[in-house]
Design a protein that fits this description.
heterodimer; A: about 120 residues; mainly beta; about 0% helix; about 55% strand; B: 7-stranded mixed beta sheet; 4-stranded antiparallel beta sheet
């Protein structure tokens, strides 16, 4: 069983719709949660970072963490064609700046926003 | 924009050849990583380094080797390429911080797509 599960999609939505992405995980010790966006033929880039349970909003993006359910979500409001990419969740036991920090990734969800 | 570079971007090579994938970063980061990513699959950490002359194997077993002679450079070598090595290889770097901060993210390079025939 994978430590982090993520639906591979593709998830196809019309422009302007809300995109809802999620990951489930099995290791309750994960404390730090991240969402990366990866465009085709590019490396991942960090979108959102959250620590422990709660919500975090940044522009059109909202990240939610529910540690009791071991479930994290990313919402994209007013989606644009430029949001079409693969979205990867990642999590770690230690803070990103810690000496021994390592990330565990989900497989990514491919999102397609149609004009 | 992150200053981390990988060459070549694409490589098609025959079985048995020795190859080196290059990764360089100009941010002075102490930590560097190599991940392997197959289509639709998660990134798997295959090697990492906490600084010069430090290299460790990652969570996924790999026949490749790495070296870290200079802070900015973290090449990955396959002595004898096989079709099972066909994959995308992503290099990343980050900076250790003693402070509890979320801003020490891993910056990724664009990746090298390797095909072994």
């Amino acid at each position: 069983q994978k430590e982090v599960e993520q639906d591979p999609g593709p998830l196809s939505v019309p422009e302007g719709a809300i995109v809802s992405l999620n990951c489930t995980y099995s290791n309750s010790a994960f404390q730090y949660f991240m969402w990366y966006r990866q465009y085709s033929r590019k490396g991942p880039e960090l979108l959102m970072y959250t620590y422990s349970s709660g919500n975090k909003e940044d522009g059109r993006f909202t990240a939610q963490v529910d540690k009791s359910s071991k479930y994290i979500s990313l919402f994209i409001r007013d989606s644009q064609p430029s949001d079409s990419a693969t979205y990867l969740c990642a999590m770690s036991l230690t803070p990103p700046g810690a000496a021994g920090n390592k990330l565990t990734f989900g497989g990514g969800t491919r999102v397609l926003v149609k004009p | 924009e992150a200053d981390i570079y990988q060459t070549p971007r694409y490589l098609v090579i025959g079985t048995g050849k020795k190859i080196t994938l290059e990764c360089s970063q100009t941010m002075g980061h102490d930590k560097m990583y190599w991940y392997q990513q197959d289509p639709g699959m998660e990134l798997h950490l295959i090697h990492y380094s906490y600084g010069v002359n430090s290299t460790e194997k990652g969570d996924l077993s790999s026949e490749s080797t790495v070296s870290r002679i200079r802070t900015e450079h973290f090449p990955l070598t396959l002595e004898s390429a096989r079709p099972s090595h066909t994959s995308q290889y992503l290099c990343a770097s980050s900076q250790t911080s003693g402070r509890r901060t979320p801003n020490n993210e891993q910056f990724f390079g664009p990746g090298t797509r390797l095909t072994v025939l």
